[in-house]
Design goal:
The chain is α/β, with parallel strands linked by helices. It contains 18 helices and 15 strands. Helix 1 runs parallel beside helix 2, helix 10 runs parallel beside helix 16 and helix 16 crosses helix 17.
Length: 475
């Protein structure tokens, strides 16, 4: 008799893979006797040594997870679309061994949806970002009908999206800002597939985002048809610091945690802007000025400077992310003046370990969904200073500040998003000593307790996963 299998298909890139593996591990940890998990792997230009090392480690430590790798494909422009035939062939091969109870697609893998439907396999989408962003995606066809202009060309337009605070059109997710861009039409196709799939799994929990989740479940975001059920299966957070051995910054990693050990409890603000987030030299100097004048203790994870003010991430061509001189970038005398209360680490720190450290009191973040979950759920309920860079992060900031009330937002200059040192100084002082900062800190601590509650026996995420398993067992 065939064993029941759940097939997962992550988009290329280590971040997407890790998130899907965590979902597979969650299923196995609670229902391992009922299912095996097979993960489909693309093979091509997005792979890295870290990806191969991670797959090897999972293969050795999680025997019930197996990997099915596609043939190598070099065309990176239509990578996922061209892999659709590989998905079909792989699913046909897997059905010889397993009874596939569900195929769970990364939201970027829409080209695989027709193949799954052709084989009659129940198909779900996994959403690794916020419920607020999902509400916006589901509402995109309605917005598409409201205007013929690109959202980026509507600087004075404010969208009223169910479940979200009023949102400037230019704060929509980066891939949909330009309606002439291919990604805009791919996002529209995603909304159609989401409506027709068997369900949506999302990495959040009910208590964190009740407003957008309620709007979605009430059908407010899909105005011309039914919306599939949404299952909150978060917070899903990768085990802390499992990639340490793959990182070249081992000495700095070992330095920052002992430094935190020497700081007073709940006194240090952590600044980090994601795995690739970076700034031009002028912005880095302004951050330095703000930190120096604020007087707060800080740990700052700094990436190699970006080439210009509009490019807020390290280029894919950058190999050595820590090949720069801090003295050439920071304000004159900064390191000497702040040496007794601050530390700057080039490129990388073990973020979860830092966020969980008892000396850390706040987090200046780019508002990426993983970082938000780690701060709100995995740490001691850390409040944030929200400083979005790109993707869906401006949308996340709006929800974090206005609905969730677990962040204080920085004011950014129109056009390039520049933040002055005076603005950063003011927001750090607000976080540490104002009444608003106290309320944000208290709310963040309550959110952490709600995150723990979500995975208890009667918790919302426990119930959501149990409901899915019940459905899969009836297929």
């Amino acid at each position: 008799m065939k064993k029941n299998g759940i097939v997962l298909y992550p988009a290329p890139g280590i971040g997407h893979l890790v998130s899907m593996v965590e979902l597979g591990k969650l299923i196995l940890s609670r229902y391992g006797g009922e299912f095996s998990v097979v993960i489909l792997l693309t093979n091509g230009p997005f792979d890295s040594p870290a990806t191969a090392s991670y797959i090897d480690r999972i293969s050795q430590t999680a025997a019930a997870i197996s990997f099915h790798r596609f043939p190598c494909m070099a065309n990176m422009f239509e990578f996922l679309t061209l892999n659709a035939s590989n998905v079909l062939q792989s699913l046909q091969e897997i059905t010889r061994t397993f009874s596939i109870r569900a195929l769970i697609l990364d939201c970027f893998c829409t080209s695989a949806f027709p193949a799954a439907r052709r084989l009659g396999i129940p198909t779900y989408y996994y959403i690794p970002f916020s419920a607020a962003a999902l509400a916006a995606i589901l509402y995109l066809p309605t917005l598409d009908k409201q205007t013929s202009k690109s959202f980026k060309d509507l600087p004075t337009t404010v969208f009223r999206i169910p479940g979200l605070p009023p949102l400037p059109a230019t704060y929509m997710m980066e891939p949909v800002l330009d309606r002439d861009d291919r990604s805009y039409h791919e996002a529209l196709q995603l909304t159609m597939d989401l409506r027709n799939c068997d369900g949506i799994l999302i990495n959040t929990f009910d208590a964190l985002e009740p407003i957008p989740l309620t709007a979605i479940s009430n059908g407010e975001c899909v105005t011309d048809g039914p919306c599939p059920p949404v299952h909150t299966v978060g917070p899903l957070i990768a085990e802390a610091d499992k990639d340490d051995d793959d990182n070249d910054n081992t000495n700095q990693k070992n330095d920052c945690l002992p430094w935190l050990d020497q700081q007073p409890s709940r006194s240090v603000v952590f600044l980090c802007f994601g795995s690739r987030g970076s700034f031009c030299t002028d912005q880095l100097k302004e951050i330095g000025n703000g930190l120096e004048r604020s007087g707060v203790r800080f740990l700052w994870a700094m990436k190699s400077p970006a080439a210009d003010a509009t490019r807020k991430e390290i280029g894919k061509e950058t190999v050595a992310w820590d090949d720069f001189d801090l003295d050439d970038i920071l304000p004159e005398g900064f390191l000497e003046k702040t040496k007794n209360r601050g530390m700057v680490v080039k490129s990388w720190v073990p973020q979860q370990a830092v966020l969980r450290h008892p000396s850390v009191v706040g987090f200046v973040s780019h508002c990426g969904s993983n970082s938000v979950l780690e701060a709100a759920a995995a740490a001691a309920g850390l409040p944030m200073v929200a400083w979005p860079l790109h993707a869906e992060q401006h949308l996340n900031k709006t929800a974090l500040v206005k609905d969730m009330k677990i962040a204080i937002g920085v004011e950014q200059r129109d056009g390039d998003g520049f933040v002055s040192g005076a603005e950063l100084e003011m927001k750090l002082r607000e976080l540490m000593s104002s009444e608003e900062g106290r309320e944000v800190r208290e709310r963040s601590e309550k959110i952490r307790e709600m995150a723990i509650e979500a995975w208890r026996e009667e918790g919302s995420s426990t119930a959501a996963l149990a409901s899915l398993v019940h459905i899969w067992n009836r297929v």
